[in-house]
Design a protein that fits this description.
single chain; 488 residues; GMP Synthetase, Chain A, domain 3; Helicase, Ruva Protein, domain 3; 4 domains; five-stranded parallel sheet; 23 helices; globular
């Protein structure tokens, strides 16, 4: 329904309402219901004068996005309606009303608006200050929960994580006076302290600069909230909330999937960085190896400071174990671990700080539940599965892809591509089999790391190689050679 008759527009001939309805209909047909609902459902025609069509939207972000990506299309659609429409201008609704004293406004026609889209709002919807209760609730609802134990004070520093900790401290200490590293990208294998470091940064920033808005999100939570905002028709509020923060922290970036979600993340990052606000991202590998990630996202993340947290050395492993023992003793008075047991843990659990903490937790649990004295033999029995798992985790999928590519004289890009020639398919299946055998990655994760393939493709490859191993001695020897190359 039109909110005003066309004759009420100063200097305009009648019939503009019908023209606007046709423009909206063509937009919906060309772009689809979802895109139309997301960007154009709240657009109004405020004024048509001197050949210029003045369109209004509820927020500054919408104005920027539509002006950048759709103004030419809007202008072409209006020009197709006749020579009276030569130019299109997009403005924020509140600013537009200050310019036009008594505008007669066309809402987006009901016939063009998807059934799921909300009715147009008559006023702008700027994000309110954090002190506003409703805005604060929205901000808190978006955030992923923070673990109170994950602070800088509880983070054990060592040679492998010293640079990452220094960068995180500088961001936390200097955010009020300007951005230092943007984006800051921290990567490491599982259990090396990325989440602890990121949450410690947010805790520190909130304590030192309570006036600043710091948002910590896991990639999974970001995807969930974005999809939820589309389903509840609150996408604009969600996007505006993200674009008004001072610090955005995204954890487990490797799990961010979906073209539309990745595009939205990229737009958010670009907006924040262009506005000199800090972005920090953590993942289990560098941006160039995020094969399922959009190229624009990888490029943007690669443009900042990249820091790798390596496997803990012996000194750091000992410090982590001793810290965990001290924390456990607070809740279990009298709990103590003999030096030879500590040496055994430090020597055999080598790749993950999380595994080191888990080793102490296991010993404490067995000690409390069985009443047996902690000894080296007890540790060997209790931790044998953990030590075996730790040994398996030493092999990475990237290492497997590199070794298989070199052995079969194919490129890594070929392994990740959609090519189906025998010379490519067989090495790819071998690599998938090794990834399943030598790592703890799930079938879906392995599929994603091999060019975004389905888990059933990985399962087929594994079963095929296993079947051939039962009857092909040459293949058995070849697999053993590849394993020795990976262990070297």
């Amino acid at each position: 329904m039109l909110e005003a008759e066309t004759g009420g527009i100063a200097g305009a001939a009648p019939g503009h309402g019908e023209a606007w309805a046709r423009v909206c209909g063509r937009l919906k047909a060309d772009l689809g219901d979802e895109v139309f609902s997301c960007w154009f459902a709240g657009m109004n025609v405020e004024q048509i004068e001197g050949g210029t069509v003045w369109l209004s939207v509820p927020s500054r972000f919408l104005k920027t996005w539509i002006s950048t990506h759709y103004r030419d299309k809007l202008a072409a659609l209006w020009q197709a309606e006749g020579p009276a429409y030569r130019k299109v201008e997009v403005s924020v609704r509140t600013a537009m009303r200050a310019k036009v004293e008594a505008p007669a406004r066309f809402a987006t026609p009901e016939a063009a608006r998807p059934a799921s889209a909300p009715p147009p709002r008559a006023a702008a919807l700027p994000l309110r200050p954090v002190a506003d209760a409703a805005s604060a609730r929205l901000f808190d609802d978006i955030s992923s929960p923070l673990d109170p134990r994950y602070t800088f004070d509880n983070f054990v520093e060592g040679a492998s994580n010293r640079l990452a900790l220094a960068a995180a401290r500088q961001v936390a200490d200097g955010s009020a006076s300007g951005v230092k590293f943007n984006p800051l990208y921290i990567h490491s294998s599982v259990g090396q302290g990325k989440t602890h470091l990121l949450q410690g940064l947010v805790h520190s920033l909130k304590a030192g600069h309570p006036e600043m808005r710091a948002l910590y999100l896991t990639a999974e939570h970001f995807m969930y909230r974005f999809v939820q905002s589309l389903q509840t028709q609150s996408a604009m509020a969600f996007k505006e909330a993200l674009r008004t923060i001072d610090l955005l922290v995204i954890d487990d970036m490797q799990f961010l999937h979906g073209k539309q979600i990745q595009q939205e993340f990229c737009h958010t990052v670009n907006t924040l960085i262009d506005g000199a606000r800090q972005v920090i991202v953590a993942a289990d590998r560098p941006p160039v190896e995020l094969e399922t990630m959009d190229e624009r996202v990888r490029s943007r993340l690669s443009g900042g400071l990249l820091i790798e947290i390596g496997a803990p050395d012996a000194a750091l492993r000992r410090a982590i174990v001793e810290r965990r023992i001290a924390l456990t003793a607070r809740h279990m008075p009298g709990f103590a671990v003999p030096d030879d047991v500590i040496d055994f843990i430090v020597r055999n659990v080598t790749t993950s700080g999380r595994d080191l903490e888990g080793a102490v937790t296991r010993l404490a649990g067995h000690n409390q539940l069985t009443g047996l004295t902690l000894s080296l033999s007890m540790a060997e029995t209790t931790l044998k599965d953990l030590i075996r798992v730790t040994d398996t985790r030493r092999v990475k999928i990237e290492d497997i892809q590199r070794v298989v590519s070199k052995h079969y004289n194919v490129s890594k890009q070929d392994l990740l591509s959609s090519r189906r020639t025998r010379s490519i398919v067989w090495p790819r299946q071998i690599a998938m089999y090794l990834a399943k055998s030598l790592t703890l990655r799930s079938l879906p994760e392995i599929g994603r790391r091999f060019g975004g393939r389905d888990h059933t493709t990985v399962l087929h490859a594994v079963r095929k190689v296993e079947e051939m191993l039962g009857s092909d001695e040459a293949l058995v020897q070849e697999i053993e050679v590849l394993k020795r190359m990976l262990e070297a």
